Fold this protein.
Amino acid sequence: MAGATITIDETIENRNESFAEYLFALIDEKNLTDPDVYKAANVGRKTFSDIRHGKIPTKKTIIKIIFALEVSLTEACILLERAGYALSTSLDTDLIVKHFIEQKKFDKFALDEALAAKNLPKIFS
């Protein structure tokens, strides 16, 4: 017998917390303030305020925040997924970002150097 039919409302009721909810829970868990994060991420205060109010940032901005928070690969993937993004296994930039996160190497200058060495756009500059 096929599974029970689930309504759209039931599906929506079972959604995960939003990108902003997950992000700010991580920030609280790490005992950081918003300015700690947006300054370390090189993200403007207005952009960060927009995020707090539910606006989904660009993938590049999320990667900057991931590096500022120094999260695990699992947490990074959850953050990206909650915003509708992913680290692709077929894009060199994403593979390099993933490598840095896996190695727990959150040096934004080293990341930009690694990207530039492959003639890829930098993330932080």
The CA atoms of residues 10 and 73 lie 30 Å apart. The chain has a mean pLDDT of 93. The longest helix spans residues 19-29.
